[in-house]
Sequence to fold (155 residues):
Amino acid sequence: MLIPGSPWKEQIDKGLNESDTVLLVVSKAALASQYVALEWQHFLQMKKRLILLIFEAVDLPKELEKFEWIDFRGSYQKGLTELFSQLQRPIQEDHPVPETGFKAPFAIWATIALSVVVAFISLGAFWTIFIPFILIPLPYQIFKRSLILCVCKRH
Fold:
């Protein structure tokens, strides 16, 4: 509420700073006013809730297109009912920015560290994966060698 005889700009700024929600009347005159523009731009910088009350069909500035709005152009009573409904809803906060980095419980870090240690120790036994390639052809090689020896002895 503006107090007569007091600087109105300071009162408006104080009101904006103390408000959780601002109702912006959208009309040709309101959007043409530099004072109204300064007020809603100031409020946008504070990242608080803004509800547009549409009284006239006008092109909205790009910054205002993403905000909630209520159409008062048709039924004033219907618009008023919607406004009360909007004001009773909790303020929708933007999704928080995800934290950077990898934060995991100690158990996860301990498991990762143990896995790295086991993998490092297992490097010495890595050659054992080649055992099947040596053992499976081995009977054939023994048979082949025996066959060659038998053939050589006959000649």
